[in-house]
Amino acid sequence: MSILSEFREFIARGNVVDLAVGVIIGGAFGKIVTALVEDVIMPPIGLLTSGVDFSHMNLVLKADNPATKVDEMVAIQYGAFLNTVIQFMIVAWVVFLLVKGVNTLRRAQAAEAAESAPPPAPSAEETLLAEIRDLLKSGR
């Protein structure tokens, strides 16, 4: 088997295609969540905190030197980290709701399939035991 045919077989598997679709959708979804957090959620939070913009909050470890006009500032960007944590929580919540909805649909479909499916035929052992029971009841 050539390496190209092996690669073709690998790509044709359903899991690889599903994973690729998931990554692409996840990337697009990440952009939506970023916009939601930065443009919708954070402004009201900033308003509640007297106009504080979390994305610019930082702890300066070393300030710029205006004499050299070189950007030497070293800072811990905890505001950007807070934004990222909020984005993660939103993504996690939405994924939870999505999985919960899918599980509810699957349970409903499984219950519907179980109700509509005819009961399984008895096995050979069950049939034999039923015959023995019937013979014992009849007294033979």
From TrEMBL:
Gene3D superfamilies: Large-conductance mechanosensitive channel, MscL, domain 1. It is a multi-pass membrane protein. The keyword Transcription does not apply. It comes from the Bacteria. It is found in: Cell inner membrane; Cell membrane. Its main location: membrane. It holds the Pfam family MscL. Keywords: Cell inner membrane, Cell membrane, Ion channel, Ion transport, Membrane, Transmembrane, Transmembrane helix, Transport. The chain crosses the membrane at residues 16-37, 75-99. Signal peptide: none annotated. Channel that opens in response to stretch forces in the membrane lipid bilayer. May participate in the regulation of osmotic pressure changes within the cell. This is Large-conductance mechanosensitive channel. It comes from Phenylobacterium parvum. The lineage of its organism: Bacteria, Pseudomonadati, Pseudomonadota, Alphaproteobacteria, Caulobacterales.
